[in-house]
Amino acid sequence: MYPEELVKPMRDELIKAGFEALYTGEDVENAISKKGTTLVMVNSVCGCAAGTARPGAIASLGADKVPTNLTTVFAGVEKESTQRAREFMVPFPPSSPAIALFKDGNLVHMLERHHIEGRSAQMIAQNLAQAYEEFC
Q1: Is 136 labeled as catalytic in the residue annotation?
Q2: Annotated catalytic residue within 2, 24, 48, 122
Q3: What is the pLDDT of residue 19?
Q4: Is the dihedral angle over the CA atoms 2, 52, 21, 78 positive or is it negative?
Q5: Is the dihedral angle over the CA atoms 46, 29, 56, 8 positive or is it negative?
């Protein structure tokens, strides 16, 4: 587990942009089961991928269509909520960071770490915006 003082700025970056932090498995279940679209950002301390994943997810919110619900869990910190979120992301293996889009409780789009790593925040935002156009 990472110390709170290390992860707080990374969590707060998403919260300030309108994401709801999910701390329990029940929080995750309630969020994903909502009608409409729900974005789940699996946050991470990894600088090489999370450093563009967070800004990319935030930048994607400038698209014409956006998810109804914005949520985040923090890998390596919020074990219960992260584990439950990953159960909804099957068949994709655990990955952090990762960004998943759900529509009416069904996984419809997934960005795994290998889709994020080495890509700019703008590229990530464009990928998500295309998914929003299709599913939101």
Answers
A1: no
A2: 48
A3: 98
A4: negative
A5: negative
* CA dihedral sign, ordered 14, 44, 95, 105: negative
Q: Map residue 73 onto helix, strand or coil.
A: strand
Residues 6 or more apart whose CB falls under 8 angstroms from that of 5 comprise none
HSE of 120, CA atoms in CB hemisphere, 13 A: 3
Whether residue 48 contacts residue 113, with contact meaning beta carbons closer than 8 Å, is answered with: no
Q: Could you report the per-residue pLDDT of 55-110, keeping only the tens digit for each?
A: 999 999 999 999 999 999 999 899 999 999 999 999 999 999 999 999 999 999 99
- Residue 46 bears catalytic tag: yes
Q: Which of 46, 63, 66, 108 is catalytic?
A: 46
Residues above pLDDT 90, as percent of the chain: 89
